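hiii so um. not sure if this is the right channel but i have a protein structure encoded as tokens and i wanna go backwards to a sequence. like what aa goes where. can anyone help
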């Protein structure tokens, strides 16, 4: 369990995340206007009368967005509600012309009910993070305050774009249930998992830098081993993994200090200050917003049939958790390796492509990827699977790696030579591993007769060591192997060398 040291003992952090992801769809949630806003599109060119809240305009629910929500719900192992509804959440701010946001109220079933995702916990073991709900709602527009000295401008292109808000669950009635996020790192891993699932399903780009994923972060602290939850604060609108981690840590320490000096935590809404990594009060409990939800009379309750859920279930691709399980079961990879290779779907696709139809390649390729390739992120293009030379860098492809490991297993080259070929590729050498091996005359020596002759030479040149070995200094074995390898320019098959040496030394 992650803890923070206070003056009077250790403290645990309790974290609840409300994550908004922007749902991929051609049109907005309640209007036919394009949902594809971006900085290159002129302001207010993708705004329908519904988005502009013209009197008498009626919202019509976009079925595709509902399908997307169902798909995501299935991806997080959630119950899908057969009946849910939309309500107006009062919100008087110029970036939403309606004066209210259409959302799904917190006290009624949302489209996606209770679910869970699995992350790697701080102890290195898989950990379930429970999810309370995910609901559909509208996004607001964008205000621009920097275009005129005395005027503000509003761009409504984003107004009415579909959001799915995913809320983690805290089992308050059952405080021993630790299926919640309990450290800054786990918060990041949870968000990455949500992002992965959303991307794998095509539900959202879930990109924090582009604003298609944002999170409100609830933080409370409690004494290590305690089994009650304390009051929390909510840090609003976070858009970077790094800032989320610093904000959680700062906020937890702030609360610990207050509690240790005998104070109490008020349920405040906090802002994160990027400049110095601190949090400060945005509004206090007294000015908490009263949303005065009321059912939207313009929208029918949302009914979802089992047939619809099943139809969507049948289109689901393999999700990262299932891919991980497949790597462990089918290829015998460790939990750690499987997790590294499923960090993104692009990585697992790369890995799967490299394995092709030869499962025996899986382990060596996993090793090469994790210990070599990942150390040179500029030398592979997991996302676009480019190949050749890009921006002056040699791009290593899945087939480069499979060829390399095949050459090792066919005894054409040894591990040391493979490493040399790999380094040559990193250094910009063009051509396949086979071509590079040919060009530089890297061929493994497997001719036992020739190797035996070299071994005989090495042994006769080192008679004192041979004596020492025979009288018990077995640690010298490596010395002989090293000399033989040097004598063959590193080309000998180490297996063959070991075998013959053992025989000769008795
Ligand atoms: P609100 O209605 O104020 O948004 P919710 O009950 O919906 O609050 O909870 C919002 C998030 O805060 C959820 O993810 C929930 O798990 C989390 N949360 C609730 N209580 C605590 C607590 N004591 N410490 C940390 N997080 C909490
Ligand atoms: Mg909330």
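sure thing!! here u go:
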């Amino acid at each position: 369990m992650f803890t923070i040291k206070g003056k009077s003992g250790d403290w645990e952090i309790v974290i609840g995340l409300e994550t908004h992801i922007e749902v991929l769809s051609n049109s907005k949630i309640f209007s036919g206007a394009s949902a594809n806003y971006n900085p290159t599109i002129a302001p207010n060119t993708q705004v329908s009368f519904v988005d502009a809240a013209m009197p008498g305009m009626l919202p019509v629910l976009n079925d595709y967005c509902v399908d997307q929500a169902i798909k995501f719900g299935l991806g997080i192992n959630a119950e899908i509600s057969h009946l849910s509804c939309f309500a107006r959440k009062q919100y008087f701010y110029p970036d939403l012309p309606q004066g209210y946001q259409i959302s799904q109220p917190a006290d009624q079933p949302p489209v996606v009910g209770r679910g869970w995702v699995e992350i790697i916990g701080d102890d290195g073991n898989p950990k379930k993070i429970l999810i309370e709900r995910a609901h559909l709602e509208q996004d607001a527009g964008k205000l621009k305050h920097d275009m005129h000295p005395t005027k503000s401008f509003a761009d409504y292109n984003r107004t009415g774009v579909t959001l799915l808000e995913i809320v983690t669950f805290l089992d308050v009635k059952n405080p021993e249930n630790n299926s919640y996020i309990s450290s800054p790192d786990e918060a990041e891993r949870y968000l990455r998992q949500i992002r992965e699932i959303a991307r794998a399903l095509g539900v959202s780009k879930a990109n924090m830098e582009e604003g298609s994923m944002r999170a409100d972060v609830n933080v409370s602290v409690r004494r290590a081993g305690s089994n009650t939850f304390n009051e929390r604060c909510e840090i609003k609108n976070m858009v970077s993994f790094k800032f989320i981690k610093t904000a959680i840590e700062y906020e937890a320490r702030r609360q610990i200090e207050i509690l240790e000096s005998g104070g109490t935590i008020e349920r405040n809404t906090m802002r994160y200050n990027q400049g110095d990594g601190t949090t400060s009060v945005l509004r206090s409990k007294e000015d908490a917003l009263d949303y005065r939800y009321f059912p939207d009379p313009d929208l029918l309750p949302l009914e979802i049939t089992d047939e619809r859920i099943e139809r969507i279930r049948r289109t689901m691709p393999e999700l990262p958790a299932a891919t991980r399980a497949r790597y462990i079961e089918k290829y015998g990879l460790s939990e750690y390796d499987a997790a590294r290779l499923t960090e993104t779907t692009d990585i697992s696709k790369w890995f799967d492509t490299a394995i092709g139809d030869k499962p025996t390649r899986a382990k060596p390729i996993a090793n090469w990827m994790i210990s070599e390739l990942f150390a040179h992120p500029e030398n592979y293009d997991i996302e676009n699977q480019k190949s050749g030379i890009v921006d002056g860098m040699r791009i290593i492809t899945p087939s480069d790696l499979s060829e390399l490991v095949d050459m090792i297993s066919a005894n054409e080259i040894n591990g040391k030579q493979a490493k040399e070929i790999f380094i040559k590729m990193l250094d910009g050498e063009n051509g396949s591993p086979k071509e590079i091996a040919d060009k530089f005359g890297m061929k493994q020596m497997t001719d036992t007769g020739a190797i035996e002759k070299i071994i005989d030479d090495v042994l006769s040149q080192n008679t004192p060591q041979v004596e020492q070995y025979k009288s018990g200094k077995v640690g010298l074995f490596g010395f002989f192997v090293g000399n033989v390898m040097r004598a063959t320019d590193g080309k000998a098959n180490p297996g063959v060398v070991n075998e013959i040496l053992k025989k000769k030394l008795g």
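oh and The mean pLDDT is 93.
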